[in-house]
């Protein structure tokens, strides 16, 4: 198949701008259903892109997104002309999610994937108290906080950055563990851990101090323990313009004041 024979599918967010831009693209290019496509073209913002990544986990098609949202960190600039050439020359990046297994007070277990982060959050006015194990070794006896999150490099510029966590280069092979409004230990600012580490959070007194766990958009309430490992079986390939790759964007974020 030549580069000119690339078959494209189009997925559009429900915003007015995305719908209008989608109509513009349909006038310029022929699109096919997703199951017949070589590449999925997405119009929307980061939230819509993240939703689509989860929706297409079982579909091994690369995704080329164009931003019609706010920040568009996971997408390219919207430009209708030269789309085939841009996709042909695009740089692929494989995103690997975290796999969360949350156990609730009633014993129910929920498994979910997170391409950005897994976060634990207090549900009431009561401060959450959490034990932290890494590779089954107790590393922190008690963290009193509003919550804690474990972020991938791709997600390190999202919630993690807002919680004052570090920005992670894509090739660093580490995860960011970042507390949210830590009360004790007051000076603990989090940790960097290997991507292949196994992390377990145990909630102290979960009935009195209820905690929810969130994997990207999936929330599980009233958890008593949460385990997180890197999932190497569910990679999604995103395509980026060669002059503005995801790795370059994350690197640049470290120099924005």
Q: What is the beta-strand fraction?
A: 35-45%
Largest sheet: 6 strands, mixed
Low-confidence segments: none
Task: Report the CATH architecture of the largest domain.
Answer: Sandwich
Structural class: alpha+beta
Tally of helical runs: 5
Radius of gyration: 20 Å
CATH class of the largest domain: Mainly Beta
Helical content (DSSP H or I, runs of 4+):
10-25%
Shape: elongated
The overall strand count is 18
The helix/strand series, from N terminus to C terminus, equals EHEHEEHEEEEEEEHEEEEEEEH
CATH superfamily of the largest domain: Probable inorganic polyphosphate/atp-NAD kinase, domain 2
| Mean pLDDT across residues | 93
For the terminal residues, how far apart are their CA atoms? 45 Å
* The CATH topology of the largest domain: Tumour Suppressor Smad4
- Domain unit count: 2
Describe the structure.
The protein has 257 residues and is of the alpha+beta class. The protein folds into two domains: 3-95 and 235-253, Rossmann fold; 98-230, Tumour Suppressor Smad4. Helices cover 16% and strands 39% of the residues. It has five helices and 18 strands. It has helices spanning 16-28, 46-55, 83-89, 159-162, 246-253; strands at residues 8-12, 39-44, 63-67, 76-77, 91-95, 98-104, 109-114, 117-122, 128-134, 137-145, 147-151, 174-180, 191-194, 199-203, 211-215, 218-220, 223-230, 236-240. Strands 1, 2, 3, 4, 5 and 18 form a six-stranded mixed beta sheet that branches. Strands 7-6-17-14-9-10 form a six-stranded antiparallel beta sheet, with no helix packed on it. A hairpin with a 2-residue loop joins strand 9 (128-134) and strand 10. The radius of gyration is 20 Å and the shape is elongated. The model has no long low-confidence stretch (mean pLDDT 93).
């Amino acid at each position: 198949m030549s580069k000119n024979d690339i078959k494209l599918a189009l997925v559009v967010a429900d915003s007015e701008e995305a719908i209008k831009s989608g109509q513009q693209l349909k006038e310029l290019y022929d699109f096919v259903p997703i199951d017949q496509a070589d590449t999925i073209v997405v119009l929307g913002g980061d939230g819509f892109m993240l939703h689509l990544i989860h929706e297409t986990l079982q579909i091994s098609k690369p995704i080329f997104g164009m931003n019609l949202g706010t920040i568009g960190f996971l997408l390219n600039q919207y430009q209708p002309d030269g789309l085939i050439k841009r996709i042909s020359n695009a740089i692929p990046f494989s995103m690997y999610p975290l796999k969360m297994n949350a156990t609730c007070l009633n014993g129910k277990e929920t498994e979910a994937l997170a391409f950005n982060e897994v976060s634990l959050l207090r549900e009431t006015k009561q401060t959450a108290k959490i034990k932290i194990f890494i590779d089954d070794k107790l590393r922190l006896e008690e963290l009193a906080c509003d919550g804690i999150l474990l972020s991938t490099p791709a997600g390190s510029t999202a919630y993690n950055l807002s919680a004052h966590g570090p920005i992670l280069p894509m090739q660093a092979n580490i995860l960011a563990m970042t507390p949210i409004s830590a009360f004790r230990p007051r000076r603990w600012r989090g940790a960097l851990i290997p991507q292949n580490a196994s992390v377990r959070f145990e909630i102290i007194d979960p009935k009195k101090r209820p905690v929810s766990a969130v994997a990207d958009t999936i929330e599980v309430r009233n958890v008593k323990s949460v385990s997180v490992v890197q999932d190497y079986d569910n990679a999604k390939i995103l395509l980026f313009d060669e002059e503005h790759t995801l790795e370059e964007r994350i690197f640049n974020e470290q120099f924005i004041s």
